[in-house]
Description:
The protein is mainly alpha-helical. It has 5 helices and no strands.
Amino acid sequence: MSKNEVKKTLGYANEHLKKVQNAWDYPTDWSDLSIYGLYCLEAAVKAAAIHFRVAIPANHYEKAKIAKQLAQNHGLPDISSLLIVLNSARKARAYGDVEFPEKLNAEDIATQIEDYVIAVTELIERVSPC
């Protein structure tokens, strides 16, 4: 994978982030916030994984494990639990087959997502690939 692939994937994360930033305001559009929040974080995880030459799994739960690994090995915020919560919220809104997670704060979630994208971008800019 190349530097261009990392940049392209971070571009996707930033596109999704714009939608997250528009979705959290009152009234919160939980469908958009959960979908684009999940996509945004997964794209940022993928960009960091490509940069550090970590294999990228296809499913959401395995990406959460990679997020935890990136946090432990490279000092990124641990958003593994947030990925699981957003996936549950997405499924609750899209399919109704799971309960919507309780006590979610849209502003806090949007802030965590934005902070993660910034952290990944800064890490990639200052740390050489492994």
